[in-house]
Every structure is written in structure tokens, then in C-alpha cells.
Amino acid sequence: MKKVLILNGHQYYDVVAKGELTQHYIDKANDFFVKNGFEIKHTNIEKGYNVEEECEKFEWADYVLFQYPVYWMSVPWIAKKYFDETFTQGRHYSSDGRSRTDASKLYGSGGLLQGKKYMLSLTYNCPASAFDNKNSLFDGMSLDQAHVAVHKTFQFCGLEPLETYSVHDIFKGDLNLDIELEKFEKVLTKNFL
Questions:
Q1: Can you tell me the distance from the alpha carbon of 120 to that of 165, in angstroms, rounded to the nearest whole number?
Q2: What single string gives the DSSP state of each residue in 58-120?
Q3: Is 166:129 a contact under the CB 8 Å cutoff?
Q4: Does the pLDDT value for residue 106 go beyond 80?
Q5: CA 30 from chain center: how many Å?
Q6: 89 φ, ψ to 5°?
Q7: Dist CA 114 CA 120 (whole Å)
Q8: Counting beta carbons within 10 angstroms of the beta carbon of residue 77, is it exposed (0 to 12), middle (13 to 18) or buried (19 or more)?
Q9: Does pTM top 0.90 for this prediction?
Q10: Taking every annotated instance into account, which residue ranges of this chain make up the domain Flavodoxin-like fold (predicted)?
């Protein structure tokens, strides 16, 4: 049986970020994984966690789905704190990868979670047109390039990326959640089945 850890990286802010949209995606993912026979564990970072248990969850999981809203071009600070606390325990990498005796060993190659995969699922206020556009805020970067720090955090520990999902213009007022959740399920199907 395939095993997946669903990480909820939402952080509550009254009026603008109550967590309903994130929860819709968590619920959709949970239903998808149940329907397809996955064993599932959850962490809702904002509700608290035990660092030792979180380390064990990463070792247990074949896959990680990290669902989070993008705050100021990155993860909410509680999610950054979670990764700092969980990944600095030394259980998910043997070293930074380099070796004094073997110059071919490169920085970032010491991850112990080899063979595991992760998916980012993002909720965004910015339009999708802000990416891959040299005249926009992200200077032509793709969505994944704009989230390089999150990707490299997982990859440092040995995980491999799956296709990223993102929903945009969430405050514009015309978000069709049913259509977006259908798109999300298609990405889940591509990534996990």
C-alpha cells in the first residue's frame, strides 16, 4: 500500500486567510487518496506537532503532499519553522553530501529520503500570468523557479519533485472552486497513479 503524508501549511489571518480554501484542497486530496487505496497521515502545522513524530512520518511516507498558501512569495513562517525544526534533527540526511576524500560528492547529495517524492500545491493571489513573463514581478521565472527554496529543502533530504499544482487570483472574486478542484484532481492522478 502506498503511503502519503499530507502537510497543511496554512497559517490563519483574520479576513484574508481563514483557511477554508486550503482545507478544500486538503479534503479533496484526502478523498482522492482514500479512494485510491493509500495509507494517509496528516499534519496540520498550525495546530502543533511533535518533532520526533514528524521525523517518523517523513521516514514512513512514500509521498508528501505539501499544501500551502503563498504569503509574501514564500511559505507561511510557521511552515518554515516546521521544516527548520523537523529537518535539522539529522535524520533525513547523512551530511550535506560532500566528502573530504571524494571530490565527486556534491553539496546537497546526502539526503536519506531517496526514492520518496513530493508535490507542492499552492494557493496564490497573483495571476498565473505573473510567471514565465519577463515583464512581470518574477522576471520571467516559472512557478517552480519562484519556489526554488521550498523545492531545494525537500531535495536536500533526497525527495524528488512531482508536478506542482497552483490556483491563482483567489481574491479576484470569480474563483470557480469546482473547476479548480477538478484540475487539482487531474494533477493528483498524474502524480500518484
A1: 6
A2: HHH-SEEEEEEE-BTTB--HHHHHHHHHHHTTSSSBSSSS--SS-TTPPTT--BS-TT-EEEE
A3: no
A4: no
A5: 15
A6: -80, -10
A7: 18
A8: exposed
A9: yes
A10: 2-171
